[in-house]
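SAM-dependent methyltransferase, pasting as requested.
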Amino acid sequence: MQAAELDAQSIQKAYARWAPIYDPIFGRITTTGRKAAVAAASRVGGRILEVGVGTGIALPDYTRDCRVIGLDLSFDMLKIARRRVDEGLTNVEGILQMDAGRLAFGDASFDCVVAMYLITVVPDPEGVMAELNRVCKPGGEVILVNHFAAEGGIRALIEKAAAPFGDKLGWHPDFSFDRVMGEKELTMVEKKPAGFGGLFTLVRFRKATA
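Structure tokens follow.
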């Protein structure tokens, strides 16, 4: 538990630094993946949970018939997200500070669960995947956009070299795709490049109905 708490503190500190400059810098880098994920979630529709909502940069892109709740661990990022919602995003039901590994929702609460650029940040990715699965309704979708480690080549060498600096970066550059494949109820239905020269990948999972 202590190690996880220390990791959470590192995440908070990292994103306190990133919050003021996240949108102008990372907003551009993440545009393609973000819009693809929101479009896929909007096709599912209904009640949507965005885990790792950050500054809320994706919130205006959801269709207005979706009912969205966003959550994040970073207080500094959430302040910006709340300002966005206050500007007129009436389909956003709430912006909450919450640990992605301990979601305070009942089982099968959402039609779709979205986690963009999150899974390499959290201390326990497998635990977070279990939570995303748990709160998703049967027949619903879990949608990820993320960087996953290259299997070989120069990029793999760079990622391994950067791995020891993960706490300062606020994410793990050598994150293996296999780590999101452990939930038996989730079947991968789509995997495709999602921008920035193939560095990011969009993955859609559908939850079994029985």
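Note for the archive: Residues 149 and 175 are 5 Å apart (CA to CA).
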